[in-house]
Specification:
By secondary structure, the protein is of the alpha/beta class. It has a domain of about 200 residues: 3-Layer(aba) Sandwich (Rossmann fold), CATH 3.40.50.150. Helices cover about 40% and strands about 15% of the residues.
């Protein structure tokens, strides 16, 4: 906004001395289980107008499964062939433990791996990605890869289901705001990245890295705009079955209608699209 030196001085006045997400992550690990997994799945499915296919005959892949909530929820709902993959071995360890505790290990498998390590035309009918696309370093390549690992022929399947956000250019898309004393909209857009990273290194403890950019953070942020996401999807040739932006606003009908109206304005959509929920299929 004013240059990295002045931005730093302004931001340090507002910063907490501790990174609150550290304790929240430990609490989340304690809370993971079948009930919490079902609650998260129901929220996701509701925002997609209850259109996520549940079929014991289909093969599901949850990319970036984290601690396995979505994969576990699918298995408990009767899906017999569910695989969850994530690059973080700590998350995979937790997911496997939860599967054993829920006695679902015969239906769901967790693997520590990257989507690009999978073979082409792998045997999956449904490929899911939940709350991770904003963290992927090369989102265009990631979306193409999702398409490449679907089955060549599927019995009513071949769906790509994506939910992610907040997008970087939305009001709180920097993923840093909660560590300030009050929330500052468009923080990552308005203030110098150097200043924000310096605040993160100096004030927010504990942190797992000494990142000098949003991309370098342990969780990583790719700064993809909503318009870029739409362009990447168009390049795949997928047919849109559901595309719902900012569904969290549905509880306030007037605000929901206003959001949908403003999202039609090209110059505004990148700064107002907070979360995206979508279902695509091949032509």
């Amino acid at each position: 906004m004013f240059g990295k030196a002045i931005d730093y001085r302004l931001l340090r006045l507002c910063a907490h001395g501790r990174h609150p997400e550290a304790e929240e992550l430990r609490q989340l690990e304690r809370d993971i289980g079948v009930e919490s997994a079902q609650a998260r799945f129901e929220k996701w499915n509701r925002r997609l107008e209850n259109d996520i296919p549940i079929d014991p005959a289909l093969r599901y892949l949850d990319v970036g499964c984290g601690m396995g909530e979505m994969a576990l929820a699918l298995a408990q709902r009767g899906c017999r062939h569910v695989t969850g993959i994530d690059k973080d071995p700590h998350y995979i360890k937790i997911a496997k433990r939860c599967a054993r505790q829920a006695q679902l290990q015969d239906k769901v498998t967790f693997k520590c791996m990257d989507i690009h390590d999978l073979p082409n035309q792998a045997e999956y009918d449904i490929v899911l990605s939940h709350e991770m696309l904003e963290h992927v370093a090369r989102p265009r390549d990631f979306l193409r890869r999702m398409d490449g690992i679907l089955r060549a022929k599927s019995r009513g399947g071949e769906r790509i289901i994506i939910a992610f956000g907040p997008l970087f250019h939305s009001p709180f898309g920097d993923h840093l705001n909660r560590s300030f004393r009050f929330r500052i909209p468009w923080l990552g857009v308005l203030f110098s990245e150097d200043a924000l990273m310096r605040i993160r290194r100096e004030f927010w403890r504990p942190v797992a890295d000494e990142a000098e950019s949003f991309a370098d953070m342990r969780e990583g942020l790719n700064k993809m705009k909503f318009s870029e996401f739409l362009r990447y999807v168009a390049e795949t040739g997928w047919i849109t079955e559901r595309l719902i932006v900012n569904p969290q606003l549905k509880r306030w009908p007037a605000l929901w209608r206003l959001s949908n109206l403003l999202l039609r304005v090209p110059v505004l959509r990148d700064y107002l699209a907070v979360s995206v929920y979508a279902i695509y299929r091949r032509p």
